Each structure stands twice: as C-alpha cells, then as structure tokens.
Amino acid sequence: MPPKAPVTPGEKAAAKRLQKKVEMASAHSAQAATPSEIETSESVGSRANTLTHLVWNGNNTINLLSQQPHIQVILHAAIQLVERELVFECYFPRPKHRHTMMVNLVLEAASSAEHKEVLQRLEQDQAYMKAFTRVPDGRIGLIRKKLKEISDRVVPGAYGVKTGDDEKINRLLNLLTFIYKFDTKGNPILSQPFDHPAINTVCQLAFFTSQDQVGKKYKDRFVSVLDDNDEPEIPSAMVSAVVTAIFSSLLDLKSVVDVGRERGDFGQSLIGMFDNNMEMLNGIYTKGPHVYHSLMARKYKAVSNVVDFASAKLKAAFARIDFDGMKSQKISENLMKSSREVFPDGACAVESAKHGAIGLILHYFGDQETEVELQSLKEEIYVTTHNHCQVVGVPGDIANSETSQKIVEAGVEAFGRIDVLVSNAGICPFAEFLTMPHAIWERTRQVNLDGSFYVVQAVANQMKSQVPQGGSIIGLASISALVGGGFQWFVS
C-alpha cells in the first residue's frame, strides 16, 4: 500500500470543525435530492409558486431587496456564510470549487429557514439553484474589497513606504520578505515567517473588531490541528488571504503597475499568490505540526486579544456592582420592581440582562445598519431572558448633547429611574499622524470625548435627583490606551 499523503493543516482543521458540527447538529439536516430537468432562467423567474418565486429585474438579474421577505432572509444568511467559508476554507476558490461552495452555502442557509418549500426546490431544481446562488456569489468581490481597503490603509505606515518607493517595495516583495518580522536593523528574521505586525493588524481589523465579523461571529470554528492541544488557531486560509491583500497593496504603491495587472486589483488574478501562501503554511505544518500550531495559536491570541480583553474588563466592571445590595434598598414595592434599570451600550446589553436587569435603554446611531443591529439585539435579549427584560431603543448621534438628554428622558419615562450607566460608545477611524485630516480628529473627539461627557453628565444628574438617590457609572475606554496600535494613537 502506498504511503498516505500528508494532511494539510487546512484539511485537518476542516475535519475537526466538521466533527464539532456533527456533535452539535440538530435533527433538521437535509439531504440533497436528485436534481430535476434543467429549466431556463425565464421559467424560473415566471414560476407561479408564491413561496419560491424569485423576482427578476429587467436586465435579467436578481436584486436581494426585490425578493419576498422570507427569500431575503435566506439570501442574507447565505451572504453571511460566504465570508465564513472564504476565510476558514479558501479565499480564492477556483470556478468549480466556487460553484460547489455557493450551492452548499445556499442549502445551509435554506435548511434553517421557515419555508421548507424553498429548500425542496433548491435541492430539486438546478436552474432555480443557479439563480439563487447569483446573489451570494456576487458578494465575494465586495468581501475582498473590504479586506483590500484595510490593507491599503495599514501597509504604508507598517512598512514605511509610500507611492513610488519602488526600490524599497521590490526588496519587500523579493522572496516574500514582507511576511517576516524584522530585527532592529530592518533585516527579516527568517525564523519568524508570517509574523510581521502588519499581518496581525490587518487580520484584526478585518475579522475581529466588531460583533458581526467572522472572528467574533464564528468563534467556535477556530480549532487546533493538534489532537493533544485544543488551543485555537487562526486558519491558514485567513492568514493567506491577509498576506495576499498586503502583497496587492504593496504592488499598488509601485510607480508603474506590473504588466497584465490593474491598480487596485484583488480578484482571481491573485489566486496564484494565495495558493503560494497556503503552500508555505502547509510546508511549515509538514515540517512540524507543533511548530505550525505554535505560530497560528500565537496569532489567534494576538488578533483576538482586543475583544477578549474588553470582554474581561466589562465582566470585571459588572462583577463590582452589588446587585443584591441594590435589591435590598428600603424603598417602596413599586420602585423595587424597577430598581435595576441598566443603561448599557452595545455588546454588554445581553450580559446586563443575564445579571438581572429588567430594563435596558439601548442607544444606537439610528441609520439602517444600526436599526437592524438593534432589532437583532432585542430578539437575543428577549430569548435570553424569556421576555422578562424590557428594551427601549434611543437613536441619535452621541456627539450631540441633545441625544444624551433624550436617552435619560426615555429611561425615566419607561422605568422611572436609571441605576447603571455603561458609557461605551466610540469610533476608531484609522489614520497616520502626519497626514490625518483635521475632520477625522474633530469627529473622533466629538464622539469619544464629548459624547462620553454628555451622557455621563446627563445620567449623573438623573441619579442625583432620583429617589432613592444614586447609581453606578461605568466608563469604558479603548484598549489602545494600554497597548497601543497602528494608526490608533489619537484614540488612546
């Protein structure tokens, strides 16, 4: 029997993720049926079945927002799964792999939807499936664009280059010197590949800085390739994607664009570079799985540390609140029922509810995106507390003092008092010190400093006047004040 081919770290990690999925899977899995005879796109668009009907535009395309609500839900779910698949499995899939990926993601999204008729038709009708996959497949370019934009912002400062520094850029690109950590003399440390700080910075900004990014949303998918160590690792596809983005950003800074390439390109033309990065990581794994694990586990700690640290600070802050003491205050029964009204912000809302808050005042910006986030957060809180926690949303720009006053008024109107304030609103636009537009400085100061002052002052006045008097005010600041970060000095 010929020797078994070595397993790549990506395959090993995928197998472990699949094992976890099987162990946690519910009884709602669906098996694909035999595809029916292929129909034309026109027949798909004109099908009378109301539950599975797709709305086609005049230019023979499908627009997500034109579809029925339940179809939109499935498409939204499939789009969210696309980035997950790209960064955990393959960021630059070849056409055949890409088609299979889209089909599987659409089926996964539809299997958890309410209307099983859609799932059945997707399984049985190839033309319908082809039409359906157009929407999530079309988002791949946008997903890559976001990563490239982050890389473009980080690369000049991280490597000390600007447009036209061709000689320096060529040195960085030669033998992939840019992936190594440098010593104090600017020489690459060859024992530390994929360890340049720019890689971690781009990875963190692209995947780990908000609740809806893959690093946060799919935390359970970060697994170890080792059987004797469960310490989570960054997947090789994620690292390779980031390195490919940095490579593209460096190319764009050259005075002359390489033949056959367009400036700003981050599409399929870079598949060779991505594959090369994957092969290098596979080679490290083949040489020594424990060495590979040490590298990728260390990177996971580095890029996820911001989120973990903030969460730890938040939990520590809440641990100091004497909820039992607040309950035992000698006040009327009516006030007792509303004595734990908490005014949190963002992610801490669910934790507040778990700790016993019966009322939450949630401030949000008020645009379409934050409106959707608020509704999702409300649903999570209601499910978590079995509808025992009332939630009031207050939209507005925290940089305006009127918004803080509206927040207090909404809280008092709904609950009669405010017992805990968590001041956690903040923004972090990245900019280099010497070239940062003054408007960015002004806006960051308005939100992070003025906004914090306005809301703390407004709530403090309410706590002073309410009976019984007092409450707890928790102010959270950026981790950049402690550990720093590229292009984040002014947030500190």
Task: State the major sheet.
Answer: 5 strands, parallel
What's the order of the H and E elements? HHHHHHHHHHHHHHHEHEHEHEHEH
Q: Average pLDDT across residues?
A: 82
Low-pLDDT runs of 5+ residues are 26-48, 306-311, 323-345
Tell me the β content.
under 5%
For the record, the count of structural domains works out to 3
At the fold tier of CATH, the topology name of the largest domain is Rossmann fold
CATH class of the largest domain: Alpha Beta
- What is the CA-atom radius of gyration, in angstroms? 26 Å
Tally of contiguous helical segments: 20
Which strand order do you get reading across the main beta sheet?
A: 3-2-1-4-5
CATH H-level superfamily title of the largest domain: NAD(P)-binding Rossmann-like Domain
Q: Specify the CATH architecture of the largest domain.
A: 3-Layer(aba) Sandwich
Shape: globular
C-alpha end-to-end distance: 61 Å
Keywords: Oxidoreductase
Protein name: DUF6532 domain-containing protein
Pfam family, one: adh_short_C2
InterPro entries: DUF6532, NAD(P)-bd_dom_sf, SDR_fam
Could you please describe the fold and organization of this structure?
The chain has 492 residues and is mainly α. The chain folds into 3 domains: 31-138, no CATH class; 145-311, no CATH class; 320-491, Rossmann fold, CATH 3.40.50.720. The chain is built from 20 helices and 5 strands. It has helices at residues 9-24, 41-45, 69-88, 95-111, 116-124, 126-138, 140-159, 166-173, 197-207, 214-217, 236-252, 271-287, 289-319, 323-327, 333-337, 348-354, 368-385, 401-415, 438-465, 480-483, and strands at residues 341-343, 359-364, 390-395, 420-423, 472-475. The protein has a 5-stranded parallel β-sheet with strand order 3-2-1-4-5, with helices on both faces. α9 crosses α11 (236-252). The protein is globular. The chain starts with 8 loop residues before the first helix and ends in a 9-residue tail after the last helix. Pfam families: adh_short_C2, DUF6532. GO terms for molecular function: oxidoreductase activity, acting on the CH-OH group of donors, NAD or NADP as acceptor; quinone binding. Belongs to the short-chain dehydrogenases/reductases (SDR) family.
